[in-house]
Amino acid sequence: MNKLLKITLGLVATAAIVSCNQQASTTTEKTTAPATETATAADPIDKIAYVNSDTLSEKYQYFKDIRAKLEAKVKKAQNDLQAKGQAYQREVADYQQKAPTMSASERQATEERLMRRQNELGRLDQNASTSIAQEEQTEFTKVYTSITDHLKKHSEEKGYKLVLTYSKTNPAVLYADPKMDITNEVLTSLNKEYSDKNAAAKK
Predict the structure, then answer these.
(1) For residue 87, is it within any domain?
(2) Total domain count, the chain
(3) Is the dihedral of CA 45, 43, 187, 155 positive or negative?
(4) DSSP assignment, residue 44?
(5) Distance CA 66, CA 5 (A)
(6) 87 touches 124 (CB < 8 A)
(7) What CA–CA distance (Å, rounded) separates 98 from 10?
(8) 30-38 long-range Cβ contacts below 8 angstroms, 24+ apart
(9) Strands (E), 37-130
(10) E strands along the chain, which residues?
(11) Is residue 17 part of a domain?
(12) Using alpha carbons only, what angle is made at residue 198 by residues 16 and 134, rounded to the nearest 5 degrees?
């Protein structure tokens, strides 16, 4: 019993290939400019950026609220199952004390009842785990969607053509120049958007 699913606190990978409305209608120009001038603001490399998913999972308020909500549900389910399990154990202990003085039919009836109780607790445990797992998937899908939708708008505004995700625990990118890290600007706008939505909902 009490084998409740542990909440996955890792953020879903937020890599999103973003298509920009700005089409690069650059033409090939003959130039004798020095090599030091080739990397400009219009260089395609400047259109690639990344966000740190570890930071988003720690500081994105929407994610933090969902995590707290799910953790509270897990704790409540665990407490409920623990209380029912302790009550069951008391029944078993009571039966063990009285069994020597019970008739064969009474012992059989009591054992059958205790077996049903044990099976019922197992079903409650399984149902609680399944319910929380389903809710977890639904809620984190919403978080993922909010991030990817926001990244699309943000990238269109900033001109990013590709936004990658980086995580120390699951590094899909082995190295990334810190100058390409847009986590803080994305995090700021994400939290502002979430705060504005909550404020509007309270009106």
Answers:
(1) yes
(2) 1
(3) negative
(4) G
(5) 16
(6) no
(7) 50
(8) none
(9) 48-52
(10) 48-52, 162-166
(11) no
(12) 60
Q: Is residue 27 part of a domain?
A: no
Q: How far apart are CA 67 and CA 128, in angstroms?
A: 17
For the chain, report the end-to-end CA distance as a whole number of angstroms: 44
Residue 71: CB atoms within 10 Å: 12
Spatial contact of 62 and 187, defined as CB atoms under 8 Å apart? no
Specify the CATH number for the domain of residue 185. Answer: 3.30.910.20
The residue among 14 and 125 whose pLDDT is bigger is 125
- Residue 105 neighbours by CB under 8 Å, 6+ apart: none
The number of angstroms, rounded, from the C-alpha of 105 to the middle of its chain's C-alpha atoms is 53
**Please, are residues 138 and 128 in contact by the beta-carbon 8 Å criterion?**
no
Percent of the chain with pLDDT over 90: 56
| pTM, 2 dp | 0.66
7 — pLDDT class (breaks 50, 70, 90):
very low
Q: Which domain holds residue 120?
A: 47-202
Query: Would you say residue 37 lies in a domain?
Result: no
Angle at 25 between CA 24 and CA 27, to 5 degrees: 120
